[in-house]
Design brief:
527 residues, Aldehyde Dehydrogenase, Chain A, domain 1, Aldehyde Dehydrogenase, Chain A, domain 2, 7-stranded mixed β-sheet, 5-stranded mixed β-sheet, 38% helix, globular
Length: 527
């Protein structure tokens, strides 16, 4: 059986590595037939040097060039939609419809096209001109970017098609995509479409490259390589922190999305007003995609009372009645089992599920746990263990002050939500809890579950550690996400126009670029 090639320096070439791996079908636990290589360091080094050479070729190119590639790539993906969906379904067991075909694939092409629009417009560059002092500054591409994709979004966060990839290309950075071992075949198909788009839009060899897997040691060397500008990583916290330490040692930016339990505070008057409806929404959000969304609610905070008891019972019944989905792989199942064991050993009581099985392939019964507010506050770190999958923990607080203390004890999260009543009876409690919750989440929601992440310019898919490695950046939303892969460049007393990038010259290069000229945002030329 032949081993699939890697994409390096504009060519599909046989890997020099002796080690191979196969993806598993999560629904059957059987290995899929294709073999993929584990790239040795000399191969990774070739990719890095090719990306560096490509960067020096494209440095200074107008945004139109990168936009043309992104648009062509989106079109190529749509032409191969059926093939991509079938492969991703086999490798992840995610449903064909609506998840893969009707939701995630259109989202992927949409964000590629949004990145193209941002590249053409150029306003993400944020040019600033002080003509009196003759100082001008602008964001510019940082250099080759490495993107590590996660297991749970084989399209929209894939290392060679997802948001990090799109943002890096829009910034003008070559990308080395490191595929995820759970869906290498899907990643290969994307890489073929990207390679065709790069060829058709005259991108240099090495602008888009793919390696499937490396050793852990080589992964650390890759993120800290002198020729790499920055990295994007979405995945497990333990692995991400190892990569961060390696990048930090040499001062390389690395943008991480790690773990999040996405707390939901359901206030008492909201339960009295529409408890059944909220329970339905909550169960649906917790179990959507078998709980394998990075924004899935893993912590539910309630105020003790008889109506709360009825709400918990309604939620329990919904967890019991819902079908058990298939997890993305053996590693996800193992991590989920360990997480639930940690919660139980710290005092949480299982009120639904709690054991493996119940569904096809890698599966675990829908699990709901409960713990008191006192116990949570006494063991807040352990009881915030992420159980990535179809499991959530209910915390029942004794009083409103304890609810506030719980909010104050939270780690950083991607999202946090408050459900309150429409008549205003929860307003005082909302105002008590919201300030603490606001500081611990990237996106604050009201009366809405967090599992959807809209591809919007206003979206923040980020948050304080450990949700991400830095609270000031988002992994979703153009043009804001592009600036992760940029550096601020200042020109002082550079008076000759030909020595300035077009965005900093007196004439606006396209008439659409927003620039801060002498303290005023404008699209006009410098007078």
């Amino acid at each position: 059986m032949s081993t699939h090639s890697v994409l390096i320096e504009g060519q599909w070439t046989s890997s020099t590595g002796a080690k191979t791996f196969q993806a598993l079908n999560p629904a059957t636990r059987e290995a899929l037939p294709d073999l993929f290589p584990v790239s040795p360091w000399d191969e990774v080094e070739r990719a890095v040097r090719a990306a560096s050479a490509a960067f020096w070729r494209v440095r200074g190119w107008p945004g139109d060039r990168f936009a043309a590639f992104l648009d062509r790539y989106a079109t190529n993906i749509e032409a191969r939609a059926a093939e991509l969906v079938a492969m991703a379904h086999a490798e992840t067991a995610l449903p064909v419809e609506p998840r893969l075909a009707k939701a995630e694939l259109p989202r992927t092409t949409n964000q590629l096209r949004q990145a193209a629009t941002a590249a053409r417009d150029g306003s993400w560059l944020r040019p600033i001109i002080d003509s009196a002092a003759n100082i001008r500054s602008v964001f510019a591409p940082i250099g080759p970017v490495v993107v590590f994709g996660p297991n749970n979004f084989p399209f929209a966060f894939n290392g060679i098609s997802g948001g990090d990839f799109a943002a890096a290309v829009a910034a003008g950075c070559p990308v080395i995509a490191k595929g995820h071992s759970s869906h290498p075949g899907t990643t290969r198909l994307f890489a073929e479409a990207a390679h065709e788009a790069a060829r058709d839009t005259d991108m240099p060899p090495g602008f888009v490259q793919l390696i499937y897997r490396t050793s852990h040691e080589d992964g650390e060397k890759l993120v800290s390589h002198p020729l790499i500008g920055a990295c994007g990583y979405t995945g497990a916290r333990a692995t991400g922190l190892v990569l961060k330490a390696a990048a930090d040692r040499v001062g390389k930016p690395i943008y991480l999305e790690l773990s999040s339990i996405n707390p939901i505070f359901v206030l008492p008057a909201a339960i009295a007003e529409r408890g059944e409806k909220i329970a339905e929404e909550l169960a649906g959000s917790c179990l959507m995609g078998t709980g394998q969304f990075c924004t899935s609610p893993g912590l539910i905070v309630l105020l003790a009372g008889s109506q709360t008891d009825a709400f918990v019972e309604s939620l329990r019944k919904r967890f019991d009645a819902a079908p058990v989905g298939t997890l993305l792989g053996e590693g996800v199942l193992t991590h989920l089992e360990h997480g639930i064991a940690t919660l139980r050993s710290t005092g949480a009581e299982v009120i639904a599920g709690g054991t493996s099985g119940g569904g096809a392939g890698f599966s675990h019964r829908n699990t709901l746990l409960r713990v008191s507010g006192d116990r949570f506050l006494a063991h807040a770190e352990a009881l915030q263990t992420e159980t990535f999958g179809n499991s959530s923990l209910i915390v029942v607080a004794d009083n409103s002050d304890q609810m506030s203390q719980i909010a104050e004890s939270l780690e950083g999260n991607l999202t946090g939500c408050l459900y309150s009543d429409t008549a205003g009876q929860d307003n005082a409690l909302y105002e008590q809890i919201e300030p603490a919750l606001r500081q611990r989440v990237g996106r604050l929601l009201n009366d809405k579950m967090p599992t959807g992440v809209a591809v919007s310019a206003a979206m923040n898919h980020g948050g304080p550690f450990p949700a991400t490695g830095h609270p000031g950046f988002t992994a979703v939303g153009m043009p804001t996400s592009i600036q992760r892969f940029a550096m601020l460049q200042c020109y002082d007393n550079v008076s000759r126009p030909d020595r300035l990038p077009p965005s900093l010259r007196d004439k606006n290069p396209n008439g659409k670029l927003w620039r801060l000229v002498n303290g005023t945002w404008t699209q006009s030329d410098v007078v």
